[in-house]
Specification:
The protein has 199 residues and is an alpha/beta fold. The protein folds into two domains: 101 residues, Formyl transferase, N-terminal domain (Rossmann fold, 3-Layer(aba) Sandwich); 94 residues, Rossmann fold (3-Layer(aba) Sandwich), CATH 3.40.50.170. Helix content is 35%, strand content 25%. It is built from six helices and nine strands. A seven-stranded mixed sheet has the order 3-2-1-4-5-6-7, with helices on one face. Strands 8-9 form a two-stranded antiparallel sheet. Helix 2 links the parallel strand 2 and strand 3. 38% of the residues are buried.
Length: 199
């Protein structure tokens, strides 16, 4: 069984969706660890409630690469196949990228390359975008710049606020992330330059 490490910072709704999809047989994997850089993250409590290995590794005041080494050391004994960033609000440092090359996935609430970074729903509204959505991509050293594994589109309604748009996108995130994880764990893709091609 392929083993996942899920990195979180907050409530962890995408982590919960992954766990639910595993329980209900839609994703063949096991969660070996849930790691939070925020000791107050709701996801830690949720993970403990599900009987999962919940690890608090506070990142406040620690530089990116030093923190990445701390995470690598925590994951090393767990034989992790894939690292999933589910609302993890820190840049991924070089030691983590080197330990898991092309084995770190992130979910981002926009149709990349449009609107990377933070406050993306407000960015989409301010720009006047007619469509938004979510993207699962491999993580590289850039900000939301890695090769795209999967995307789901969501229309932007004239009455949308950042909150209502975010809520509709989140519904798609909960489906898309597990689908993309299955593709990567199953090796059902190849890379052609930046393009992730399904096979």
């Amino acid at each position: 069984m392929k083993r996942l490490a899920i990195l979180v910072s907050g409530r962890g709704s995408n982590f919960e969706a992954i766990a639910r999809n595993i329980r209900e047989g839609r994703l063949e994997a096991e969660i070996a660890a849930v790691v939070a850089n925020n000791p107050e993250a709701q996801a830690l409590e949720t993970a403990r409630g599900l009987g999962l290995n919940a690890i608090s590794l506070p990142s406040k005041g620690i530089d990116t690469d030093t923190y990445a080494r701390i995470v690598v050391d925590a994951l090393a004994p767990l034989e992790i196949d894939l690292v999933c960033l589910a609302g993890f609000m820190r840049r991924v440092g070089q030691p983590l990228l080197e330990a898991y090359p092309m084995r770190i996935l992130n979910i981002h609430p926009s149709l990349l390359p449009a609107f990377p970074g933070l406050h993306v729903q407000q960015q989409a509204l301010d720009y006047g975008a007619k469509w938004s959505g979510c993207t699962v991509h491999f993580v590289d050293a850039g900000m939301d710049t890695g090769p795209i594994v999967a995307q789901a589109a969501v229309p932007v309604e004239d009455t949308d606020t950042a909150e209502t748009l975010a809520a509709r996108i989140l519904v798609e995130e909960h489906k898309l992330f597990s689908q993309a994880i299955a593709v990567v764990l199953g090796g059902r893709y190849r890379l052609e330059g930046r393009r992730v091609v399904r096979v």
